[in-house]
């Protein structure tokens, strides 16, 4: 069972139960599509599901080391944001086998409401409670993405830079589990 329910304004944070969950997997695909800003490039969600790199973040969801926190808009009951971790060596921010990669996204209609700032610390705390002993968490983000400020605020630091999609600079950021979670 997950941690107690958390409320952020009109939103509830739900902790996904371990194991396969086709409905959650489909929602995470939608969120990954948003996180990767694929709409800007004209790609479709179906195209994203065929991309070998992106498949590693979601396909076959439900491994014992897959963990997610989902924001639900309470008035509508709709899932609108998610943060999740997964270990996969093909990820954009792969560092080593005991450092799962974070993905996080919010539906465009629900952005700027504090959901990322609530989801990320909840996910970090959730990952720390798991039986697997992780060294920390990693993520990849475009340097121009305003979420870089959120990641820094909670304790992620830039580990390296690389040229990403569209020849934009992307950061690989790392959160060591020796770092306390900041508010």
Concise structural overview:
By secondary structure, the protein is of the alpha+beta class. It is 27% helix and 28% strand.
What are the defining features of this structure?
183 residues; alpha+beta
Produce the secondary structure layout.
Elements lengths: L5 E3 L2 E5 L6 H14 L9 H6 L1 H7 L8 E7 L4 E9 L14 E6 L8 H14 L7 E7 L4 H8 L2 E7 L5 E8 L7
Antiparallel strand pairs: 1-2, 2-3, 3-4, 4-5, 6-8, 7-8
Helix pairs in contact: 4-5
Portion of residues in beta strands equals 25-35%
Helix and strand composition category: alpha+beta
Weakly predicted, low-confidence segments: none
Cα distance spanning the termini: 25 Å
Largest sheet: 5 strands, antiparallel
Q: How do the strands line up in the largest sheet?
A: 1-2-3-4-5
The overall strand count is: 8
C-alpha geometry: globular
Q: Note the run of SSEs as H and E.
A: EEHHHEEEHEHEE
Q: Could you characterize the architecture of this molecule?
A:
The protein has 183 residues and is of the alpha+beta class. Helices cover 27% and strands 28% of the residues. It is built from 5 helices and 8 strands. It has helices spanning 22-35, 45-50, 52-58, 115-128, 147-154; strands spanning 6-8, 11-15, 67-73, 78-86, 101-106, 136-142, 157-163, 169-176. The protein has a 5-stranded antiparallel β-sheet, sandwiched between helices. A hairpin with a 5-residue loop joins strand 7 and strand 8 (169-176). The longest helix is centred in the N-terminal third of the chain and has 14 residues, at 22-35. The model has no long low-confidence stretch (mean pLDDT 89).
């Amino acid at each position: 069972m997950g941690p107690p329910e958390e409320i952020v304004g009109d939103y509830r944070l739900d902790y996904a139960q371990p194991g396969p969950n086709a409905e959650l997997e489909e929602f995470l695909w939608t969120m990954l599509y948003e996180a990767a800003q694929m709409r800007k490039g004209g790609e479709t969600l179906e195209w994203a599901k065929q991309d070998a790199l992106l498949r590693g973040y979601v396909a076959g969801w439900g491994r014992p080391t897959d963990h997610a926190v989902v924001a639900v808009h309470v008035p509508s009951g709709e899932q609108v944001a998610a943060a999740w971790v997964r270990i996969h060596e093909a990820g954009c921010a792969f560092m080593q086998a005991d450092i799962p990669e974070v993905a996080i996204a919010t539906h465009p209609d629900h952005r700027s409401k504090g959901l990322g700032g609530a989801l990320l610390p909840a996910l970090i705390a959730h990952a720390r409670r798991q039986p697997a002993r992780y060294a920390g968490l990693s993520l990849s983000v475009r340097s121009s993405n305003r979420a870089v400020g959120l990641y820094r605020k909670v304790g992620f630091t830039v580990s390296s830079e690389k040229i990403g999609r569209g020849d934009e600079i992307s950061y690989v950021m790392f959160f060591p589990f020796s770092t306390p979670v900041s508010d």
